[in-house]
Amino acid sequence: MRPKRLLKFICLVYFDGRKLQALTAAERSAFDASSYAYDVGLQKQGSYLIAEALQSPRSARTVSVRGRKVTVVDGPFREAKEPLGGFILVQAPSLRAAERIAAGIPLAKLGSVEVRPVFDFS
Q: Is there a contact between 122 and 77 (Cβ–Cβ < 8 Å)?
């Protein structure tokens, strides 16, 4: 029997950084530990591919090209109450399974996680 092929999904994590800053040192330490433990659990089950936290939206630059003109502006293209704060690239057998993974991401309790399939060019 052929094993079921795993699909890739990106979990885009949006949250208001002020909510993290409002945590006490003990709460932040516990939160960080739970985030790390969740990633380790995903690795053990074979779902984790990579995860990265992003710097503040203030450090972002938005680049656009129209014709031959390149424009670079400070910050994200649009303001958001919950800016993109990081991502986790996972593999799962289905979108539903990826949604369950996203629901377990600790930052989902402070913001939201957009789950999007990665396009397979093969």
A: no
> Measured between alpha carbons, how far is 3 from 26 in angstroms, rounded to an integer?
43
pTM of the model: 0.87
Q: Is residue 107 part of a domain?
A: yes
Asked if the structure places residue 6 within a domain, the reply is: no
Q: How many domains are contained in the chain?
A: 1
Which neighbouring-strand residues pair with 53? 86
- CATH number for position 55: 3.30.70.1060
Q: Supply 51's token pair.
A: 């995860």
- 72-84 pLDDT per residue, tens: 988 776 667 788 9
Q: Count CB atoms within 10 A of the CB of residue 107.
A: 23
* Percentage above 70 pLDDT, the chain: 95
